[in-house]
Write a structure and sequence with these properties.
Two copies of one chain form a homodimer.
Chain A (H helix, E strand, L loop, with lengths): L5 H24 L6 H7 L4 H7 L12 H12 L7 H21 L3 H11 L1 H25 L6 H24 L4 H19 L1
Chain A binds a DNA duplex (30 and 30 nucleotides) through helix 1 and helix 3.
GO molecular function (chains A, B): DNA-binding transcription factor activity; transcription cis-regulatory region binding
Keywords (chains A, B): DNA-binding, Membrane, Transcription, Transcription regulation, Transmembrane, Transmembrane helix
InterPro entries (chains A, B): Homeodomain-like_sf (IPR009057), HTH-type_TetR-like_transc_reg (IPR050109), HTH_TetR (IPR001647)
DNA sequence: ATGAATCGCTACAGTGACTGCATCGAATGA
DNA sequence: TCATTCGATGCAGTCACTGTAGCGATTCAT
C-alpha cells in the first residue's frame, strides 16, 4: 500500500525530524523562546527548508490535524439512506473525537498544545483558525447531505454549535489538568448536549 | 460625564485617525496590500505610535469589541433571583447581538471584516482568538451564576455552543451577502436553536 | 505662576517570521 | 545514459513588532 519512492521517504523523514525537534524545543523552553532557525538547526536542515514543509511557525504543532476533518467528511458521505441528521452529526463528531484521542490526547500532544496556546496568542489564534476552516467544510457537507432540511446558515449554526461546544469543553478540561480519558468524556458529553438540540 | 483632559482627547483623536485610515486603506487595497507604516503615514503619526495604540496589525479592525463582552457579563451579573439558566444565556447573547448590530453590522464594518478575513488567515485567526477569550470569560461568569448546576466544563460547552452557533451563522450569512437585518436574524435563530438544547 | 512630573509621541536600531529567486545535486523516468 | 523532476540550500529582502532613549506638550503641586 505504501509505495513511496526514496525521494518521498526522505521528505517525510525531514518533516518528521522538524516536528520532533519543534515539540522537544517547545516543551523545554516554551513557544516564543524558540526560533524557527533553531528548530531547523535541531532537525539539521536549513531554515528555508522549514518553510517548505510548514506555512508558519505554528503549523508544525498542528501537523496532520486535517486528517480528522477528512474522517468526519467521510462519515457524512457514508451515511445510510434513512439516517437521521442528528445521528450523522454525532457519528461524524465522534470520528473526530476518537482520532483526537488516538493521535493527540494519548501522546500528550494535545496537552502540550493547550499549554503553549494558553500563553501564546498567535498559536491559539492559528489553532482556532483551523477549527473554523474545518467547520466550514463540515457545514457544507452537511448541507449537501440534507439539502431539503438545511440551508447554509442553519448548517453553519449546527456545526458551529457542535464544534464550539466540543472544543471549548476539551480545552477547559485540558486546562484543569484532566487526563486523556477525562478529556474525551468531556467532549462526548458536550456532543450529546448539542445533539439533543437538533432533534 | 466625559471629563477628558486635553491630553486624553488628543490621544483618542490619534486612535480614531488610525482606525479610519486603516479601514479606508483596507477597503481600497485589501488587507495584506497595506503596511502598518502606510496606515501610520495616512494618519500622520509615526509607525511606532501605531503600536502604542494597537498590539497587532489586525487589532485596528477589532477595536472596541471588548465592550460587547462586558455587556454580556453585565447581563449575567444582573440576573433576577429566580431567572432560569437558558433565559440568562439568551439575554446575555442578545445583548451582544444588539451591540454588534449597532456598532458593526449597520456601518458595514462587520461585512468588511468578514470579507478581509476570508482572504487573510492572520486576521481570521485573530478574530477567532477574541471569541475564545470572550467565551472563557462568559463561561466563568455563567458558572459562578449557577455554581450548583454547572461545572467548568459544562459551562464552557454551553457557551461554546452558543458562541459557536451564533458566530458561524453570522459569518455564513455575511459571506452570502446578506444585509445587516438578515444577519441579525440569522444570529437570533442560531441563538434560539442552542437555547432549546439547554432546557 | 513656576518648577516638576507625567505621558503621548518620535527616531533609531534590532529581532525574527516569512518570501522570491537562482542553484545544486540526488532521485526518477525514458 | 541523458534529461527531467524536485527537495534542499543560500542569499537578499520585506515587514510586523519591540526596547530604549529623548523631546515636548499637558498636568499637577506648591
Amino acid at each position: 500500500m505504501e509505495k513511496l519512492g526514496l525521494r518521498e521517504r526522505k521528505k517525510q523523514r525531514t518533516r518528521q525530524a522538524l516536528i520532533e525537534a519543534a515539540v522537544r524545543l517547545f516543551q523545554d523552553r516554551g513557544y516564543d523562546q524558540v526560533t524557527v532557525a533553531e528548530i531547523a538547526d535541531a532537525a539539521e536542515v536549513s531554515p528555508r527548508t522549514y518553510f517548505l514543509h510548514f506555512q508558519t511557525k505554528e503549523d508544525v504543532l498542528l501537523a496532520d490535524t486535517d486528517v480528522r476533518v477528512d474522517l468526519a467528511l467521510e462519515a457524512i458521505a457514508e451515511r445510510d439512506a434513512g439516517e437521521r441528521l442528528p445521528d450523522v452529526l454525532v457519528r461524524a463528531t465522534d470520528q473526530m473525537i476518537v482520532n483526537a484521542w488516538d493521535r493527540d490526547l494519548s501522546s500528550g500532544l494535545a496537552a502540550l498544545r493547550a499549554r503553549l496556546a494558553a500563553s501564546e496568542p498567535a498559536l491559539q489564534a492559528r489553532l482556532l483558525q483551523r477549527y473554523l476552516t474545518a467547520q466550514a467544510e463540515l457545514a457544507r457537507a452537511l448541507q449537501r447531505a440534507y439539502p431539503d432540511r438545511l440551508d447554509a446558515v442553519l448548517a453553519a449554526a449546527l456545526v458551529g454549535a457542535m464544534v464550539g461546544a466540543v472544543s471549548a469543553s476539551a480545552l477547559t478540561s485540558l486546562q484543569r489538568g484532566d487526563g486523556p480519558d477525562e478529556v474525551r468524556n468531556a467532549m462526548r458529553q458536550a456532543m450529546a448536549l448539542v445533539a439533543r438540540s437538533i432533534a
